[in-house]
Amino acid sequence: MNIYKRYFRKYRVLFFTATTFVFLESMADLLQPTIMARIIDEGVREKSVETVIGYGLLMLFITFLGAVFATVRNILASKVSQGFGKDLRADLFEKIMNFSESSADRMESGSLITRMTNDTAQAVQFVNGMMRIFFKAPVTGIGSMILAAALSPKLSIILFFVVSLVAVLIYISMKMSYERFAKVQYAIDKLNLVIQEYLLGIRLVKAFGRQNFEEEKFAKSNEDLEKKGIRSQLVIAYFAPVLSLVVSLGIALVLYAGSILFVRQEIEVGKVAAFISYMTQILTSIIMITNIFTTFVRTKASTERIHEIFVAEEDAEGGTKEFSSEAMSVVFENLSFSYPSGSGLYALENLSFCLNAGETLAVIGPTGSGKSTLVWLLLRFYEGKEGRILLDGIDIRDYTVEQVRNAVSVSSQKTMLFSGSIHENIAWSTPEMSPDRVERAARAAQAEDFILSMKEGYESSIYQGAVNLSGGQKQRVSIARALAKESKLLILDDSTSALDAVTDRKVREAIKEFKPRRTTILITQRIGTAMGADKILVLSQGKMEGFGTHGDLMKNSSTYRDLYVSQIGELDKVVI
Ligand SMILES: Nc1ncnc2c1ncn2[C@@H]1O[C@H](COP(=O)(O)OP(=O)(O)OP(=O)(O)O)[C@@H](O)[C@H]1O
């Protein structure tokens, strides 16, 4: 529950004011039965109308005060709990933004959404309840016990047994609830994931006629949630009637014992009535405490899930070195890396190559050979296990993560555009970017024609998921966005795969014209794209199969030659 501490500090004044009002409200409640006893014993029994009216008015006044206190504490409780919820969600969001890739791989997005919404809502409810009933129940309960004991020590013996029995029942129900509630939250995670996956691939699901399969998957998760939900509520379903039964038996016993004491003239009628009233207050408080414990148990499970986000690994920080040159040299020295969540096999193994500042490197290799992994390492999403990467001759870990990412622009394999205008998407790295730069980047990415053919040109909207653009159009906007960013290293990760060969060539030529001295890495499966680069790196199963110019590789790399033959034609027609 440590995560509440920092927020508690911020809201402590409002929190204490609210609890003060809760305390005052409880006092008002506690006074009622004693005044009632006076009305019966001093007013009704003595037939004194003035006494009945006097105490009656006092009772009304105290009730009114109690209502005022309750209103104030409700307002304050809402303010504090909603403010806390807003702060908690903001902090969680910030933390998730700084997640290391390993953390992001580990926590599925469906689970993160549940934690950000359901679990925080549970925490908000807990904080709200803490100020509304958490203090009220113990104060009213303990106060009632003291006043009841003062009224009749003998009847208090029955009270003691009833309260003890109820406390034991609550303890057992709490133990049973915790595990079940945690399972409910994980079932919600799973359901969210199924929904999310379906929504992301909705067209594919329909195209493959897999609706039935997806429906079944959803139904299974939905049923699982239903079962776990029922199991978690069964605890309350079983225990609530038992508690009510114990409470009713207790009241019956007090009435019975009270009547015996009354006959023996050891107690007055008003006092028995007040005792029953206090007993009801005590038992209501205990029921409230049961709710508190249920909320507490649920919140404990939710808090642990929120806590997991807060302690997740963040992007590594680094040293303080700064980039000096205009373009960036890139050196890999015996670098090996395997994904923390992967099979344990190296995604890149003992990789060494050197790319001078301003040069273009093409990385080619079959699928799964480690091409994208190289990009993630250059962006410091992951750290190499052995060996090192040098940027401008300095170990990548000696720069801050922010510096490295500022110096690199990337157009990734999975094109992702954001809802907003085309201009906003291209100028995404620098919102105040001049329209001229945006248009130049669009021209270089061969995107201007289709942008201008749209009704509102650069101000045309991109809908969520960029559903109103074709695959090739999305890729071109994504390339323009990478080009427009002021960077020293440009990485295009298979980002011209949806373009025809002519447009692909035009894009490559324009990239160099746009910023001639920018180091560029082109990741590709196409030999035609790789051929024109200053250097080509051939990867296969994470290992370097060749490195050099097109001519060098045609002589020395059988993998490269095979790729060439498969894509371009027979070797005897090849001019090396
Ligand atoms: N997040 C990840 N967690 C675990 N393993 C991964 C992860 N990403 C990639 N891998 C594994 O690392 C290896 C290299 O993957 P990578 O994406 O770098 O290949 P690639 O050459 O870019 O492939 P493609 O051309 O298909 O994009 C593959 O075996 C892949 O299964």
From TrEMBL:
Organism: Proteiniclasticum ruminis
Major place of residence: membrane
Superkingdom classification of source: Bacteria
One function term, GO molecular function aspect: ATP binding
TM helices/strands, residue ranges: 52-72, 133-151, 157-174, 235-263, 275-297
Keyword line: ATP-binding, Cell membrane, Membrane, Nucleotide-binding, Transmembrane, Transmembrane helix, Transport
Keyword Transferase: no
SUPFAM superfamilies, A to Z: ABC transporter transmembrane region, P-loop containing nucleoside triphosphate hydrolases
Residues covered by the ABC transmembrane type-1 domain: 16-298
GO CC annotation, single: plasma membrane
Keyword Lipid biosynthesis set for record: no
Name of the molecule in the record: ATP-binding cassette, subfamily B
Subcellular location: Cell membrane
Annotated ABC transporter domain residues: 330-566
PANTHER family: ATP-BINDING CASSETTE SUB-FAMILY B MEMBER 10, MITOCHONDRIAL (PTHR43394:SF1), ATP-DEPENDENT PERMEASE MDL1, MITOCHONDRIAL (PTHR43394)
Membrane topology listed for this record: Multi-pass membrane protein
